[in-house]
Amino acid sequence: MACRETRRIDLHVHSTASDGTLTPLEIIKKSEQAGLAALSITDHDTVAGCRPVLETALPASLKFLTGVEISAAYPVSSSISGSLHILGYDIDIHDTALNHGLERLQAARNQRTPRILKQLDGLGIDISMTDTAAFAGGGQVGRAHIAQAMKARGVVRSIREAFDRYLGKDKPAYVDKERIPCDRAIALIRQAGGVAVLAHPFLVETPDDKALEALVKTLVDMGMQGIEALYPQHTKKQTAFYKDIARRYNLLITGGTDFHGDLNSEVALGRATGSFYVDYELYEKLIAFNRHQP
């Protein structure tokens, strides 16, 4: 049997197609160097990060799973505002309905960036679209790229400082973004042949575990099929709770680091801050589940 290290996977990774700092092919190279057995690039509201990977020859040791992370709104029955992130795995990235839905979100993101730059200008910080696009690697320009431009201009000392002082929620240059209904996000993923998974439940804005479970039940009724129980910021207690929810609602368990490259240099691909580990078995279960769906 292969040793544990050769079975390490990462199913939550961002590239320059959204708000990561490495290109998709750089991520593939880094995954091989890290000894990962399986990988999914799950960029925000776009499948552009998957395209170059599917067009290149992968290392024999690495399996690749198409992915996306969709910015969704909470159910209308909920009093919570903000984003609920739905991961889609093993999707057909050429699916027409999925791409139309993502194009709407991408258009909203494109409109958001100039508004953020205008807010910064009002604060006396002159950052241009040209400045930010230089960090996007030809992909969609977003807050991470604005933060990199701010660092390069000496406005802040780190990307994290840019978010903490200016770009994060409730900060002076923050601009809210458009989201699609969560039932629509789940439907788009499933219609594209994929598996819909609730991302990082730790970050879901519910007041307590009871409310989170109620939300999960609502999402399951909408067609959600999995939960990202394994996530670097989850405590052992939280991970156990999410696994229990998965068992009780017959959900798949997934996991990943939420790797963004230099956006958060403390999070290493496949390992997060060190001991974090997601086993290849979860990739196998996800693939087997999806292949046997009607």
Structure description:
By secondary structure, this protein is an alpha/beta fold. It has two domains: 4-103 and 180-291, TIM Barrel (Alpha-Beta Barrel); 110-167, DNA polymerase, domain 1 (Orthogonal Bundle), CATH 1.10.150.650. 39% of the residues lie in helices and 14% in strands. It has ten helices and eight strands. The protein has helices at residues 24-33, 51-54, 96-122, 129-133, 143-152, 159-167, 182-191, 209-222, 236-248, 280-291, and strands spanning 9-13, 38-41, 63-73, 83-89, 180-181, 195-198, 226-230, 252-255. Strands 1, 2, 3, 4, 5, 6, 7 and 8 form an eight-stranded mixed beta sheet that branches. α5 (143-152) crosses α6. The longest helix has 27 residues, at 96-122. The radius of gyration is 18 Å and the shape is globular. The model has no long low-confidence stretch (mean pLDDT 92).
Layout of strands and helices, then pairs:
Elements: E1 9-13, H1 24-33, E2 38-41, H2 51-54, E3 63-73, E4 83-89, H3 96-122, H4 129-133, H5 143-152, H6 159-167, E5 180-181, H7 182-191, E6 195-198, H8 209-222, E7 226-230, H9 236-248, E8 252-255, H10 280-291
Parallel strand pairs: 1-2, 2-3, 3-5, 6-7, 7-8
Antiparallel strand pairs: 3-4, 4-6
Descriptors:
TIM Barrel; 39% helix; DNA polymerase, domain 1; 10 helices; 294 residues; 14% strand; alpha/beta; 8-stranded mixed sheet
The CATH architecture of the largest domain = Alpha-Beta Barrel
Dominant shape: globular
What's the order of the H and E elements?
EHEHEEHHHHEHEHEHEH
Distance between the termini: 32 Å
- Overall CATH class of the largest domain: Alpha Beta
The low-confidence parts are: none
Assign the CATH superfamily of the largest domain.
Answer: Metal-dependent hydrolases
Strand portion, in percent? 5-15%
